Amino acid sequence: MAKKAVEAANSRSDLVEILSEFTRFKNIDRAALMGVLEDVFRTMIRKKYGTDENFDIIVNVEKGDLQAFRERVITEDMLVVDENREIPLSEALALKPDAEVGEDFAEVLSFKEFGRRHVLAAKQLLAQKIKDLEKNLVVNYYKDFLGEIIVGEVYQVWKNETLVMHQGNELVMPKSEQIPRDRYKKGDTIRAVVLDVEMRNGSPKIIISRAAPQFLHKLFEAEVPEIYEGAIVVRGVVREPGERAKMAVETYDDRIDPVGACIGMRGSRIHGIVRELRNENIDVIHYSSDPEIYIQRALAPAKITKIEVDEENRQANVYLRADQVSLAIGKGGQNVGLAGKLTGYEIDIFRDEDQTEEDVELDEFKDEIDEWIIEELKKIGCDTAKSVLALSADDLERRTDLEREMIDHVLEILRREFEDD
């Protein structure tokens, strides 16, 4: 069957002009734009004709042109039932002298056939679809950066979050994802890792973080070529942001010292990372598949006497000399807590039984030392007299909230206990 296309006088429209504006200023894929414009025009057709099944739409984004063809079947004038799908023979003959009943007839649909209300609604729909397309493009772009470091500029600092501009896009760093000692002002350059990307309430939400373990991992990857090239593998990273971190590394190349490579000559590689993280204390540990060795390394610098490991329940009992207990536990339980997270074991710290007979529990001194002071000492892992005496007054003052005069008084009481013996 023959087809005839009858061109209307005006094939460029206000809608196509709007499309041209968007393609000029927006970085949007051409194929996606074609799909958007076709969807918008089909919506116009459905509103006017009730269906778009017998319409073909051709979009040329490069030229800014759009054409729609309506296909109808040539029918005897008196037998036309559906004017949208059928064209009277007399009308077809006026356009094509050799037209015959039963032939398919195609004609170009002009935007002039649509009223101003339809065109205005289509413009609004097109603008909205373009905005939605841009939002999806932003989400897809940053999904490719998940777990990677970006460099942006601070442009708004609020109580609970900091807003960062990156390539014209707004990124959010919540307070919980900041290093506690970080302080920002508008215009500051900031490095952070892309932590989460999602569409929230119809808008892209890109969360960045400086507190996430991934940030520390990527900083080492940038500073240590062996990690970037895969010669050294990072087995795990745990952090108390701005305070302490532990990272386990290993290598299958016997020529490489993984810990030494990460630290660098005289700390050259790790110093920059420590400064970036506001002097965070970073322990780089040589990973081991043997849980006893791994736990022992994770609890460094404490020296362990004995370890009992229950691999099935992922639990470990660690025994140390009294003077090593506070080192293993760390300030506020930080060291043992991070070691547990890194190794995946629940670690319980015990004093070596051979050392405890000559020691005295701090609770035994409640008649001489206030209970709140004893609790403050326990927070840093000191629950016996000798574990406290093993630390200097300066260490106790630095690790606790106790005043120097109070510390000296406590030490005097504890020393007197052993002098009496």
What does this 3D model show about the protein?
With 421 residues, the protein is an alpha+beta fold. Among the domains are: 14-140, N Utilization Substance Protein A, Chain:P, domain 4 (2-Layer Sandwich); 145-209, Nucleic acid-binding proteins (OB fold (Dihydrolipoamide Acetyltransferase, E2P)); 358-420. The protein contains 16 helices and 15 strands. Residues 1-13 have low confidence and may be disordered.
Binned, the helix content reads 25-40%
**CATH topology of one domain, what is it called?**
N Utilization Substance Protein A, Chain:P, domain 4
Question: Which CATH C-level class of one domain is it?
Answer: Alpha Beta
Structural class: alpha+beta
- Kindly estimate the percentage of residues that lie in beta strands according to DSSP: 25-35%
CATH architecture of one domain: 2-Layer Sandwich
Largest sheet: 5 strands, antiparallel
Silhouette: elongated
The radius of gyration over CA amounts to 37 Å
Mean pLDDT across every amino acid position = 84
How many distinct helices? 16
CATH superfamily of one domain: NusA, N-terminal domain
Number of strands: 15
Q: How is the largest sheet built, in terms of strand order? A: 7-6-5-8-9
Low-confidence stretches: 1-13
The oligomeric state is: single chain
Q: In whole angstroms, how far apart are the ends?
A: 116 Å
